[in-house]
Each structure stands twice: as C-alpha cells, then as structure tokens.
C-alpha cells in the first residue's frame, strides 16, 4: 500500500480521476480514498494546510492503511538561487523544519540547538531534519526526472523546508535558504516526515513550483501549474515503481 497526502483536494484532482475503483471512507474525521493507481494499492488523504493538519492526517493514514511508503506532494515555493522556476519540480532529499525554535538576539536557534528531539525511535533522535534514505531517493530520482523531461521542465533534488510563516519577502527567502541549505519551502512536508520517522514508514516528497519565495506578488503565482506537475511526478513514480515493493 502506498499512501498519498496533499493539503487540498485541488492538488489531487488528476490522481483521483485515475483511482479505480475508488472507495471513500471516513478516517480520523477526514475522507480516506482507497483504490488502485498505476497497479499499486493506494490510499489518499487531504490534510488541510499547515503542520498540525499534516501530522494529524499522516497519523490517521498510517494507522488506517499501514502503508509501505508515504508520498507528500503539492505545490511549493522555490528559493532564490535554487535554479527552479514556476512549473518546475522539486524532489526532497530531506525535509527540514525552518522556523521551529527560538529567535534569539544571537540569531535563530533550531531544535538541535535547543536539544529538544521531536522524535526518538530505536535509539535515533530526530531534531529539525528528516533525510530521505539514499536508496529510496535514487529509486525515485530517474522516475521523477522522466516526468520533468516529458513536461519540459526542470527537476531539482535537494532539501525542502517547512514553515509556518511563509517567505513573503526576498530577505526572508534568502535567510531561510542560507540557514537551511534548502531549495524551496512548503507548509506540511516536515510534519509528514516526522510522523513517518515515528512510525518507521519510508517517506518521499514532491513539490510542483507554484511561485518563487520572494517579495509577495500573487500575479506571478501559478497554482494550477504547480499542482499539475506535482501530480504528474507522483504518477511517474507510481508507474515506474515495482509493484508490491517495500522501499528500503
Ligand atoms: O498569500 C501569500 O503570500 C502566500 C504565501 C505562501 C503560501 C501561501 C499559501 O496559501 C500556500 C498554501 C499551500 O501551498 C504550499 N505553498 C505554496 N507556495 C508556498 C510558499 O511559497 N511557501 C510555503 N508554502 C507554500 C503550502 O504547502 C500550502 O499547502 C500564500
């Protein structure tokens, strides 16, 4: 079983059209879609926007369907210098909490600096960062690159950053990318990754770039383009992944 999580229904329209047969149940006060997609048994849930929604949806999805893999996807903002433009694809090599911590006179102190682990499991303590295991990333990369090639867009692989306060200025975006090394940001990924780390479930994340993280200018955004390319990336992943495989 592969579990798919996106924030809002518009981000899953293309995939839900292809989910057959499609059964809708209730799980944890959210609709849970069950069906087959590209030969894989799939569960799909809309979390709502933000970390609290994302963590709660990921928890009920994992508890209800015991997936071998969770894929978080949707639109996202690209950081300056990432080489990404609107309509491009970003595949997470890791997810990082960008604003979990303390803003102190000496600068931002993250959870590692505060020595508060967010997850402790099997002797491993996770603070701000949730890396995607190398084998899983290398399996996913060429499949998503194929989707990017077909769509005539760029694929970047790198750290994605999860924020509660989105970067609506050039300065905020530059500072977050400098501090984290991230290529782009969103509002859910690290929370889904954290829950996956707690349950020991492999995690992948794909974002379609809907906007640049920059001085706020909504006329430059293209949400439908970001939502569409993210789903095309997920489809390519599912189509290329071995059926019934349990990713390492
Ligand atoms: O109105 C604004 O200026 C604004 C700035 C950033 C994000 C929003 C959203 O409403 C997006 C929420 C939704 O989309 C993802 N997303 C897309 N672009 C970004 C971004 O630049 N920074 C963070 N999140 C982004 C996010 O994951 C949410 O699901 C509005």
Task: Describe the model.
The protein is an alpha/beta fold. The protein has a domain at 73-240: Rossmann fold (3-Layer(aba) Sandwich). Helix content is 33%, strand content 34%. The protein has helices at residues 13-18, 51-65, 111-114, 134-151, 170-180, 189-199, 223-240, and strands at residues 2-6, 20-27, 30-37, 40-46, 69-78, 89-97, 101-104, 107-110, 119-121, 124-126, 129-131, 155-162, 184-186, 203-212. The protein binds ligand LNDFFVEH. The ligand O=C(O)c1cccc(C(=O)CC[C@H]2O[C@@H](n3cnc4c(=O)[nH]cnc43)[C@H](O)[C@@H]2O)c1 is lined by residues 7, 49, 74-77, 163, 166, 168, 185-188, 210-211, 213, 216. Catalyzes the hydrolysis of futalosine (FL) to dehypoxanthine futalosine (DHFL) and hypoxanthine, a step in the biosynthesis of menaquinone (MK, vitamin K2). One of its GO terms (biological process) is menaquinone biosynthetic process. Pathway: Quinol/quinone metabolism; menaquinone biosynthesis. Its EC number is 3.2.2.26.
| Bound ligands, each once | ligand LNDFFVEH
- Here the CATH topology of the domain at 73-240 equals Rossmann fold
Mean pLDDT: 96
Helical content (DSSP H or I, runs of 4+):
25-40%
Percent of sequence in beta strands: 25-35%
Unreliable stretches (pLDDT < 50, length at least 5) are: none
Q: Which CATH first-tier class of the domain at 73-240 would you pick?
A: Alpha Beta
Backbone structural class: alpha/beta
What characteristic shape results from the CA principal axes? globular
CATH architecture grouping of the domain at 73-240: 3-Layer(aba) Sandwich
Name given to the CATH homologous superfamily of the domain at 73-240 = Nucleoside phosphorylase domain
Rg over C-alpha atoms, rounded to the nearest angstrom: 17 Å
Number of helices: 7
Describe the strand arrangement of the main beta sheet, using strand numbers. 5-13-12-6-14
Q: Largest sheet, described in full?
A: 5 strands, mixed, barrel
Q: Cα distance, first to last residue?
A: 14 Å
What is the N-to-C succession of helices and strands?
Answer: EHEEEHEEEEHEEEHEHEHEH
- How many beta-strand elements? 14
GO molecular function: adenosylhomocysteine nucleosidase activity; methylthioadenosine nucleosidase activity
Function: Catalyzes the hydrolysis of futalosine (FL) to dehypoxanthine futalosine (DHFL) and hypoxanthine, a step in the biosynthesis of menaquinone (MK, vitamin K2).
EC number: 3.2.2.26
Protein name: Futalosine hydrolase
């Amino acid at each position: 079983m592969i579990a798919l999580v996106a924030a809002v229904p518009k981000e899953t329209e293309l995939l839900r059209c292809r989910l057959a047969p499609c059964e809708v149940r209730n799980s944890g006060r959210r609709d849970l879609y069950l069906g087959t997609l590209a030969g894989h048994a799939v569960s799909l849930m809309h979390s709502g926007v933000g970390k609290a929604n994302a963590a709660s949806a990921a928890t009920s999805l994992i508890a209800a369907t015991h997936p071998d893999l969770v894929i978080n996807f949707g639109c996202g903002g690209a950081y300056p210098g990432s080489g990404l433009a609107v309509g491009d694809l970003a595949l997470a090599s890791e997810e990082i909490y960008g604003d979990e911590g303390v803003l102190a006179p000496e600068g931002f102190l993250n959870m590692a600096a505060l020595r508060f682990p967010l997850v402790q499991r099997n002797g491993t303590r996770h603070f701000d960062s949730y890396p995607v295991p190398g084998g899983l990333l290398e399996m996913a990369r060429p499949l998503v690159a194929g989707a990017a090639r077909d769509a005539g867009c760029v694929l970047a692989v790198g750290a994605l950053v999860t924020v509660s306060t989105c970067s609506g200025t050039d300065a905020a975006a530059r500072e977050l990318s400098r501090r984290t090394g991230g290529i782009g940001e969103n509002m859910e990924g690290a929370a889904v990754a954290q829950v996956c780390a707690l349950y020991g479930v492999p995690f992948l994340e794909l974002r379609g770039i809907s906007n640049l993280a920059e001085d706020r200018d909504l006329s430059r955004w293209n949400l439908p383009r970001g939502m569409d390319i993210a789903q095309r990336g997920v489809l390519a992943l599912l189509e290329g992944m071995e059926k019934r495989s349990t990713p390492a």
